[in-house]
Amino acid sequence: MNKVFAVILAGVVLQGCSIGSMTGKDWIKAINTGKNISKITTAGVSEELTNCAKDIFDPGNRGSGC
User: What CA–CA distance (Å, rounded) separates 13 from 18?
Assistant: First the structure.
């Protein structure tokens, strides 16, 4: 039963149909975030915050994506 539901859900998501207010791309982003949440490290978070802080003080350098 779960496999059937997963196949149907995947079909709807990959077709780009919207379910509620989420589009197919939003579903894919949410699923990928759930998969990758365990790979987040404290060092990575610290580096991301440092890069964003540098962008605040140097608006000409917007390479970090903040």
Answer: 8
Predicted model pTM: 0.42
Phi-psi sector, 65: left (phi>0), alpha (psi -120 to 50), beta: left
Q: Which residue in 1, 35, 30, 28 sits closest to 12, CA to CA?
A: 28
Query: What pLDDT does residue 3 have?
Result: 73
| Rg of the chain (C-alpha set) | 18
pLDDT over threshold 80, residue 33 = yes
Q: Which two tokens stand for residue 52?
A: 């964003």
Q: CA-to-CA distance for 66 and 55, rounded, in angstroms?
A: 8
List beta partners, residue 19. Answer: 22
What span, in angstroms and rounded, lies between the C-alpha atoms of 8 and 13? 9
